[in-house]
Amino acid sequence: MVDAPHLLTLSEQARLIREGSLTAVELVQAHLDQISKLNPQLNSFIAVDPEGALEQAARIDAALARGENPGPLAGVTIGLKDAIPAKGIPWTINSRLFEDRVPEDDPPVVTLLKNAGAIVIGKTNLNEFFSRPTESDLNPPPWNPWNPERMSVGSSSGSGAAAAARMASATIGVDGGGSVRLPAGAHNLYGIKPTHGLVSRTGVGRSEHSEICPLGFTALDTALMLESMIGHEPADDLSWAGEVPEYVANIDAEISGWRIGVPRVFIESAPNESEVMNGFDTFLAKLEELGCELVDIDLQGMAEARAATFLTLFSNAYQRHQKTVKTDWNTYGPQSRVNLLQGAFMSSTDLINAGDVGRAFKAYFSQLLQDQNLKAIATPTSPFATAERSRRPGEHSRGINACYTAPFNISGHPSISLPAGFGDAGIPVGAMLTGELHDDLSLLQLSHAYDLATDWSSLAPSI
Amino acid sequence: MEYRTYEQVVARAHQIAPVSDDDIEPLINLVNGVREYCDLMESLMPELGGEIDVTKMSRNMDGDA
């Protein structure tokens, strides 16, 4: 019996289960106990499946006892953002519209995770339809375990909070403009938005810019999760059919000499809080200590690409809800229903313009990386050190909290948020690396080297 | 983006959903942001046969420098 197995990293949990010194049932029970203890205060989970999780854990323990290999994630638990369906567990998107919906099937990404041995322990909280959080959502917003008087940044807020509070081995979120990288940064986690198309959205809703992403305690955990989530879906025209390197087997790399671009002019134009910049400077210093060469770069088009991302998101959202907002207006929360209408005020030309700007930025950014021989660029994850600041109405509607993250949604480039310290309120701040399309491996290698050279991933909230 | 006045936005809102008076003010704020973004996109479009040039785009967060 391992003491407090929920405090171990996912990679350690998986290794101990494979070796037989921890059972999947023991780990699931430890996470269920943690959920029982903390969730009433934190609201991280909005549905928990104890029976299903324990049943699955018993099956994995039995398979291991028979000498079978139940997969690289055998026995570890995951919390799924409730934007993603999972068989037999309510799928509400935190909306009263779907209060009673229970899916009968898993989407491919959940099937891949289960085939790798992962156990879905429950569904994590989110803002209703990825909007702004309000107390009138079906479930109230989650609180940040690093300071439970502060809200968690979203929209994958529950996924960030649940992972940080060790209620699951790792969590899954969805990132349309920063909704995984921002909570990863605000919860001292590693959260990667993979290259567009690597993780199929089949069964989750088609989107050209929104990615299903893992959040983990360590870079290695995140790599292990992502590797298990990738698979070509022939029915999905956006799904990547090309080769993908092994992340975990190749995660140890000599990063000395790798060139990292730093767009200082752009960064200095953002309303960064001092704690964010302190964390970012420390992050850059650590990369230099690891032998990386920091290169000042002239980065253009970030504001335009951010605008293009948001216009596309607005249009997609209204397009999906166009019938229901007419018939069920009062069933929506007051924040999300108004947000959902934004796309109705755009013309088809506006949407095509946004798509063209996004494609131009995508080509430009790849060319910039190539011309300057950069492995990645480095920025803060968010200019703000607390959720409250990022939710001021004017700032939120202009997407300022997503000024670093959103441009890379429409471009499709891989981007990872890494822990970079703590702000005055005790809330973590993140730094971000963004690299070339389909070079997710380099980001994971950089993150792993950084992780091994820092102590952030060994810290857990004292709650 | 054709909805430029308060009246146009309110009329469009009533056309697409049973909005209440309380919904209008936050909606107007959001649509102002959408209009800014749409106008920005339009300003970046090239002449017929041209290409969008990112190297002529902004270097700052507000998109104005």
Architecture overview:
The complex is a heterodimer of chains A (463) and B (65). Chain A has helices at 10-19, 24-42, 50-65, 108-115, 157-164, 181-185, 219-229, 264-269, 274-289, 302-321, 324-327, 334-340, 348-371, 387-390, 393-397, 407-411, 440-453; strands at residues 45-48, 77-81, 119-124, 143-144, 147-151, 170-175, 190-193, 211-216, 259-262, 293-296, 376-380, 415-422, 428-435. By secondary structure, chain A is of the alpha/beta class. In chain A, strand 12 and strand 13 form a beta hairpin. The longest helix of chain A is centred in the last third of the chain and has 24 residues, at 348-371. Chain A starts with 9 loop residues before the first helix and ends in a 10-residue tail after the last helix. Chain B has helices at residues 6-16, 21-43. The mean pLDDT of chain B is 95. The chains are: A alpha/beta (463), B mainly alpha (65).
Describe this protein with a few key phrases.
heterodimer, A: about 475 residues, alpha/beta, Amidase signature (AS) enzymes, two-stranded antiparallel sheet, 13 strands, globular, B: about 60 residues, mainly alpha, about 50% helix, elongated
CATH class of the largest domain in chain A: Alpha Beta
Q: Radius of gyration of chain A over alpha carbons?
A: 20 Å
Largest sheet of chain B: none
Strand content of chain A: 5-15%
Number of domains in the coordinates of chain A?
A: 2
Gross geometry of chain B: elongated
Total DSSP helices of chain A: 17
Give the overall shape of chain A: globular
Compressed to H and E, one letter per element, the order of chain B equals HH
SS class of chain A: alpha/beta
* Total DSSP E strands of chain A: 13
Order of helices and strands of chain A: HHEHEHEEEHEHEEHEHHEHHHHEHHHEEH
Largest sheet of chain A: 11 strands, mixed
CATH fold call of the largest domain in chain A:
Amidase signature (AS) enzymes
- Can you give the mean pLDDT of chain B? 95
CATH second-level architecture of the largest domain in chain A: Alpha-Beta Complex
CATH superfamily annotation of the largest domain in chain A: Amidase signature (AS) domain
